[in-house]
């Protein structure tokens, strides 16, 4: 049985582009600490290539953990979050729900890099929502709410608690609100 968090391949390709854009916004935080490590940049580029249909899902599924390993090569929490955003984006080829993980880690990175700005997460979420295509919004609306399905990244794991969980809940609430029929 396929998880509801997977989405169709066509929908995964759509949300991959948005996830790559979200992760790309945090990439500089990783590269500032480790400019020689190109794993997160490569993961984002591959995610975009997957989104454009230039790469197959099977190959990308096999490579999805590469960028995550880059998080172990840095110590700054914002750089770690940026690497994890890239890793989540590369996971979209496997499960569409990883797009929300990419956005959440990118917003967390923004908050960590500017702790003096309590509105940094709000600003990043606002940007993410404004840059979400109607097709991506529609695809993400098909995902179960955080915590409702244990078979994937939206289950009871790292993405379900703390700031990451809070960000994903906000993104899902906005997507759900925009997908409701007008009265």
The tally of domains stands at 1
- What's the overall geometry? globular
Intertermini distance: 36 Å
- Sequence of secondary-structure elements: HHHHHHHHH
Helix content: 55-70%
Low-confidence segments, given as residue ranges, are: none
- Proportion of strand residues: under 5%
Oligomer: single chain
Number of helices: 9
> How confident overall, as mean pLDDT?
93
Main beta sheet strand tally, sense and closure:
none
Give me the secondary-structure category.
Answer: mainly alpha
Tell me the radius of gyration: 15 Å
Number of strands: 0
Polypeptide structure, described:
The chain is mainly α and 183 residues long. It has one domain (9-179). Helices cover 63% and strands 0% of the residues. The protein contains 9 helices and no strands. It has helices at 9-33, 39-51, 57-63, 66-70, 77-90, 98-113, 120-130, 134-140, 162-179. It is globular, with a radius of gyration of 15 Å. The model has no long low-confidence stretch (mean pLDDT 93).
């Amino acid at each position: 049985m396929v998880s509801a968090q997977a989405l169709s391949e066509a929908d995964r390709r759509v949300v991959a582009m948005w996830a790559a854009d979200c992760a790309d916004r945090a990439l500089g935080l990783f590269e500032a600490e480790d400019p020689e490590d190109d794993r997160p940049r490569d993961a984002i580029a591959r995610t975009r290539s997957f989104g454009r249909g230039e790469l197959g899902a099977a190959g990308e599924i096999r490579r999805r953990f590469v960028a995550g390993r880059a998080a172990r090569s840095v110590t700054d929490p914002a750089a770690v979050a940026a690497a994890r955003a890239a890793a989540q984006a590369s996971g979209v080829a496997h499960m569409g729900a990883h797009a929300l993980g990419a956005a959440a880690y990118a917003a967390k990175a923004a908050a960590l890099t500017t702790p003096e700005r309590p509105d940094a997460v709000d600003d990043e979420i606002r940007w993410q929502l404004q840059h979400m295509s109607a097709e991506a919004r529609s695809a993400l609306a098909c995902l179960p709410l955080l915590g409702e399905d244990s078979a994937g990244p939206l289950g009871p794991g790292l993405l379900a608690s703390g700031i990451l969980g809070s960000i994903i809940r906000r993104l899902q609430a906005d997507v759900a609100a925009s997908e409701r029929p007008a009265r």
